[in-house]
Hints:
Layout lengths: L8 E2 L5 H10 L5 H12 L13 H10 E2 L4 E7 L5 E6 L5 E9 L2 E5 L3 E3 L14 E4 L2 H15 L11 E4 L9 H12 L11 E5 L3 H10 L3 E5 L5 H7 L8 H12 L7 E7 L7 H10 L5 E7 L13 H13 L3 E4 L25 H6 L1
Parallel strand pairs: 1-2, 6-9, 9-10, 10-11, 11-12, 12-13, 13-14
Antiparallel strand pairs: 3-4, 4-5, 5-6, 7-8
Amino acid sequence: MANDGHMKQNLIGLDRRQLELWLASLGEKPYRARQIMRWVHRRGTDAFQSMTDLSKPLRKRLDESATLVTPGIAAEQHSNDGTRKWLVRLADGNCVEMVFIPEPGRGTLCVSSQVGCILNCTFCATAQQGYNRNLSSDEIIAQLWLANRELGIDERGYLLITNVVFMGMGEPLLNFENVVGAISVMRDDLAYSLSKRRVTVSTAGVVPAIDRLRTECDVSLAVSLHATNDSLRNQLVPINRKYPLKELLAACRRYVEGTPKRKVTFEYVMLADVNDSPAQARQLVSLLNGVPAKINLIPFNSFPGTRYRSSDVQRIELFREILLERGIMSVTRKTRGGDIAAACGQLAGDIQDRTRRSARYAAG
C-alpha cells in the first residue's frame, strides 16, 4: 500500500501513453516513461532502486506509489525437443501455462489470455478445465517478461523470443482490451520491439472482434477452423452456432483487404475419421475461395478423457497434397512438447473456480 492508503499502481502492463499519463499525475515529465520502460522490459528490472538514471527522490516516490508485480513460476518442464513449459501462478492462486518453442533463427512464446476458456471446443484440453476469468494486461505482458528472464540471451546478446502467439489458454478476442493493451507494450520500441507480423492472435471466430482488431491493432490473424461445414463445426467449435462459417470467412476477407501479400492462417486439427477425408480437403479448398490463406494442419494431440484420435501420417499427407495441388499454401505443423503436454490443445493450467459459462455463451 502507498502512504496515502491507495493501492499501488502496477506499472508492468502499462503502455507508453498510459505510463506517461500516470507519471504526469505525479508531476513528472513524459520522458521518464521511456526510461522506466527500458529498465522494466529491455533490462528485466523489477526494482525501482536499480533504475540509476532516475533521481533518488523519484525512485523513492515510485517505491511509495507504484509496484512491478509479476506472477511467480509454480513449475517448469523441459521437453526432449527443447520446448519449455511454465506453470505461472497468479496472485489469486489460479495458474496458467505458457510455452516457449525454439527453432533455428526463431523463438516463439505461446501466451495465455484467460484462466481456462469460456468456449467449449471439444478437442481442446483447456476447454475441459472450465473458465474462471480474463487475464489482466499486467498478467499477459508478465508472461513475456518472465520468459525472457528465464531464458536469458543468446551468444550475440539478443533475447531468444522473436515471436509471440496468443495460442495458449483462453480465447484472446473475448479479452480484447487487455490483449490489445499487452500487444501495445510488446510492439513498443522501448520494450520488446516486436513487429506486427511477429505477434499473432488466434481466435475460434469472434467475428465482431476480428473487425475491431483490424482497426485497432493490426497484427497477424490465425483462425481455428477445424471443419468445412457448419454442421461439423457446430460440434467441434460451438461458437460457430453464433458466428457461422459464412460470417467468419467474410470477416477474414475484410481483415486482409487492401494488403495483397497478407494471409490469414487457418488452423485445422486433424481428427481421424472426423474431418480428414479427401472429400473434406476439397471442400476446404472451395470454402476458402477468395480468402488469402495459409493452412496449418495440426496432428491432434491427445489428452486424458478425449474421444478423438489423430489422423495417421499418410492421411494427413494426402489431405495436404490435395490442398497444395489446388494452390492453397499448407504445412503440417510438427508436434512440439508433446512429452510434457505442451503441444497445441494440451494446455490445462490450474483453475481455482471452474465456472462453466461456455454453453451459455455459445448459445448466444
